[in-house]
Amino acid sequence: MRLGPRPAALGLLLLCAAAAGACKAEELHYPLGERRSDYDREALLGVQEDVDEYVKLGHEEQQKRLQAIIKKIDLDSDGFLTESELSSWIQMSFKHYAMQEAKQQFVEYDKNGDDTVTWDEYNIQMYDRVIDFDENTALDDAEEESFRKLHLKDKKRFEKANQDSGPGLSLEEFIAFEHPEEVDYMTEFVIQEALEEHDKNGDGFVSLEEFLGDYRWDPTANEDPEWILVEKDRFVNDYDKDNDGRLDPQELLPWVVPNNQGIAQEEALHLIDEMDLNGDKKLSEEEILENPDLFLTSEATDYGRQLHDDYFYHDEL
Q: CB–CB of 263/26 below 8 Å?
């Protein structure tokens, strides 16, 4: 979608909204740990185009494609889907659609069709104009200054993704820019960027206080707000693997560039818990076909989307 001209402050809000959408997808699905079945349904039948396409599939064709997908998930062909197989499939699906989206964006951003995306083309697609901030000159307006910092961070990431220092990014480099979590050569840059932003005392680590950011403790409150309790739990149980009360550079990575492994594992376990009729901790084709709606409103089929993408149900994956 092409965005019209807008002031820097509004651009900041739009950027933050986009970032929040990407980072909070898990929280929308599992707000404070509670699953929302209506979110699954909305994701499957969220827009009329998807509803129409879904309805077009008759029961027989729907079941045929679902059976084909089940066989592909079953990596060892033993007739059962394990937590590991389901998790691997869901992660593969996430990556496939992320790469497809990046390829579509690349075409939109490549204004002159020369198979590269320059920094100017990126700006024109994002803001309808080329924006150039002075790295050494802060802006007086707080929102505009925040936007300046975000824009400069994007520019640094763009330059890092440009491995051959050419005039623009190739498709592979553009994917590295949009999805640094998928590209090894971006890892160190992402970690250093996170330390620059969050490591306020410069010790090379991120403490709990630095992790929580600008939160101000209320000495009169009897207990912390619920969101603080959630974030503390994540810090302690998800990120601080060595339990030393701070995040080292490697522990930072899952936080600042989250991968989909945790979401995939949680969804795989949820499906087994809900659909495993005989308690063997795995799913047979019969168990899935006994309750196909649950499987079709899960990340295992990308909320039914895979039934309309022959990449997934075709004989050769």
A: yes
Residue 181 and residue 256: Cα distance in Å, rounded?
9
Question: 24-46 in b/e burial notation, b at 16+ Cβ within 10 A?
Answer: eeeeebbeeeeeeeebbeebbbe
Query: Residue 176 is which amino acid?
Result: A
- Single-letter code of the amino acid located at 146: S
Measured CA to CA in angstroms, residue 270 lies from 78, 159, 261 at distances of 21, 41, 14
- Axis crossing angle, helix 171-178 with helix 83-109, rounded to the nearest 10: 120
The pTM of the whole model exceeds 0.70 = no
Q: Structure tokens of 31?
A: 């707000």
Contacts 24+ apart (CB under 8 A), 106-111: 106/171, 106/174, 106/175, 108/2, 109/174
DSSP code of 218?
-
Q: How far is residue 186's CA from residue 205's CA, in Å, rounded to a whole number?
A: 19
Q: DSSP for 232-287?
A: HHIIIIII-TT-SSEE-HHHHHHHHS--SHHHHHHHHHHHHHHH-SSSSSSEEHHH
Amino acid found at 106? F
Pairing of strands 246-247, 206-207: antiparallel
**Tokens, residue 9:** 């402050």
Bridge partners for 225 per DSSP: none
Distance of CA 92 to the CA centre of its chain: 13
Residues 6+ apart with CB under 8 A from 134: none
**H helical segments located in the chain:** 8-23, 25-29, 37-44, 48-56, 59-73, 83-109, 119-127, 142-161, 171-178, 187-198, 208-212, 226-233, 249-256, 261-275, 285-290, 292-296, 310-313
Per residue in 99-144, pLDDT tens? 889 999 999 999 999 999 999 999 999 999 999 999 999 999 999 9
